[in-house]
Amino acid sequence: MTQAAPPKIRIRGLKKSFGTKTVLAGVDLDIYPGESVVVIGGSGTGKSVLLKCILGLLEADGGSIEIDGEEVVGLRGRRREEINRSCGMLFQGSALFDSLPVLENVAFGLLARKEIDRKEADATALRTLAQVGLDASVAGHFPSQLSGGMQKRVALARALATSPNIIFFDEPTTGLDPIMADIINNLIVKTTRDLGATALSITHDMASARKIAHRIAMLYQGRIIWAGAVAEIDDVDDARVNQFIHGRAEGPIQMTVEV
Amino acid sequence: MGALQALGRFTLGFIGRTGRLVLFAGSGVAHCVRPPFYWRNIVRQLIEIGYFSLPVVGLTAIFTGMVLALQSYTGFARFSAEGAVAKVVAISITRELGPVLAGLMVAGRIGAAMAAEIGTMRVTEQIDALTTLSTNPKKYLVAPRLIAGIIVLPLLVLVANVIGIFGGYLVSVFKLGFNPATYLQSTVAALTTEDVVSGLVKAAVFGFLITLMGCYHGYHSKGGAQGVGRATTNAVVSASILILCFDYILTELFFAK
Ligand SMILES: Nc1ncnc2c1ncn2[C@@H]1O[C@H](COP(=O)(O)OP(=O)(O)OP(=O)(O)O)[C@@H](O)[C@H]1O
Ligand SMILES: [Mg+2]
Question: What single DSSP character describes residue B174?
Fold first, then answer.
């Protein structure tokens, strides 16, 4: 990774609260071109909120997010749409359109750009489906007819079909069996490499993080408390990071368990 | 003090919600007139709202026409004005009962379904997904529904008018012993263009209100299945109340000279 280049995404002091509840309390994070960064952190720490703020799906309360040097906090309208065009997003719950068959789900982003016709879009969609290991026989199925793992793969295909140069993956392997999780991890590594894309992923799964990340950042209490290369994570002094990567209930991180 | 505070909070909340609704309606209408248009979605909604509402609206209309003939016959007998039955049926159906009852039936059917569908899309993040796929969700989801509602409700009401008047005819001719030809003649003589047109304008407004409420409550639903359920109820209740309220306003505009 040549870190001399300016970051693709530069986040400074990002804040977001819901009512009185502060979720992000000043996040700083740089993601360099072609890099794959994984954000880890406990449930409910605001990882999904972070992604939604970057994509403009939620409005940040304060701070700055620059994509390719352009400030996107508070950006709306046409310019925001143009920036989102270069982004792909895999949602935590897949978020497939359940009124449309698989093929149309995957072709959706391609057709929305109005640059190619339906036939070309369908061909690209089928090719992307093949990349994620799904053949043409599922193309006509509706999302509700697929298993959770297949839905994830369709959602992955949908995120990749437009060849985005920034891709966000929100918990791509949660809820999958270990083998399918590994298949998805490999797909993410391979497809982002093939596209030369910059990737920001979220996961609680350390095996998955080690596999897909160049760098890992840990979000805790609304801030990034540690960020560094994958190889360094086992030598970190921070007790909170240690607790998380080894998955121990005892330690400085106290999960509030509501009864 | 407590009561005053509560009143203040209620007023502010009400103004806030109304403002949000008006903004939503405004941006929805703006998307209706600015390209791109999602023709496929518009056609789908036309069929969903129009074609599939035909049985409900038709049944409502025929019974309304029948009951109207019977009621006005027995009621008017007191003033020996039974001859007015055809006129009463024709005018009440076209001006008032056709649009209002069709509107209320469609509000129940479509308002609920629309709020549930869009609400589910909201809570499962499909609306966010649209945004990330270079598609404006209001243009894709809201505008086609508004357009379809405005176009299709007048058509439904036209059908309801015909069926309702036919219902009145059936009862008058076969039960009350009116002469078929005279009955039809007095129906045609009673109707003015204004009666029919005012009813159709009402229908278009109701179509807008029904789809707007379905979209609005669905679009802003939160909190999983329960939130979607609440959105569904709110859509139907608010659409029904707005229909009755705008029915008065429009009648006032048309006829109170
Ligand atoms: N639209 C919203 N309105 C109110 N609160 C929200 C909203 N979205 C998220 N939150 C709150 O923000 C916090 C962080 O949510 P988020 O979904 O980002 O968690 P997460 O880190 O992705 O967790 P998980 O790993 O379980 O997905 C949660 O406590 C949640 O209640
Ligand atoms: Mg999440």
Answer: I
Q: How far is CA A90 from CA B112, B126, B165, B184, B190, in A?
A: 30, 11, 56, 64, 63
| Chain B (120-179) residues lying within 8 Å, Cβ to Cβ, of chain A | 120-121, 124-126, 128-129, 131-136
Q: Could you read off the pLDDT of A156-183 as tens digits, one per residue?
A: 999 999 999 999 999 998 877 888 888 8
Which of the four pLDDT bands, split at 50, 70 and 90, describes residue A44? confident
Q: How many CA atoms lie within 13 A of A6 on its CB side?
A: 7
- Residues A192 and A28 sit within 8 Å (Cβ to Cβ): no
Spatial separation of the C-alpha atoms in residues A161 and A139, rounded to whole Å: 14
A251 pLDDT higher than 60: yes
Please work out whether the CB of residue A57 comes within 6 Å of at least one atom of ligand 1: no
Q: Which residue has the higher pLDDT, A246 or A155?
A: A155
Q: How far is CA B213 from CA B66, B125, B233, in A?
A: 31, 20, 11
A243 touches chain B (CB under 8 A): no
Query: For chain B, what is the mean pLDDT?
Result: 93
A55-89 burial code (b ≥16 CB/10 A, e <16):
bbbbebeebebbbbeeebbebeeeeebebbbbbbb
Collect all residues of chain A within an 8 Å Cβ-Cβ radius of residue B136. Answer: 81
Amino acid A105: pLDDT: 95
* Residues in chain A closer than 8 A to B124 (CB atoms): 93, 95, 98
Instruction: Name the residue of chain B whose CA is nearest to A79's CA.
Output: B134
Out of A57, A88, A113, closest to residue B131 by CB: A57
A52 to B128: CB separation less than 8 angstroms, yes or no: yes
Give the pLDDT mean for A20-39.
92
**Between B193-219 and B143-170, two packed helices, what is the crossing angle to 10 degrees?**
140
Q: If you average pLDDT over residues A183-188, what whole number do you get?
A: 88
Over its C-alpha atoms, chain A yields an Rg (Å, rounded) of: 18
In whole angstroms, what is the distance from residue A158 CA to residue A168 CA?
12
Q: Which domains does chain A have, with CATH numbers?
A: 1-86+165-259 (3.40.50.300), 95-163 (no CATH)
Please give the Cα distance from A138 to A143 (Å, whole number): 9
DSSP-derived pairing of the beta strands A215-220 and A166-170: unpaired
Q: Name the amino acid, one letter, at B101.
A: L
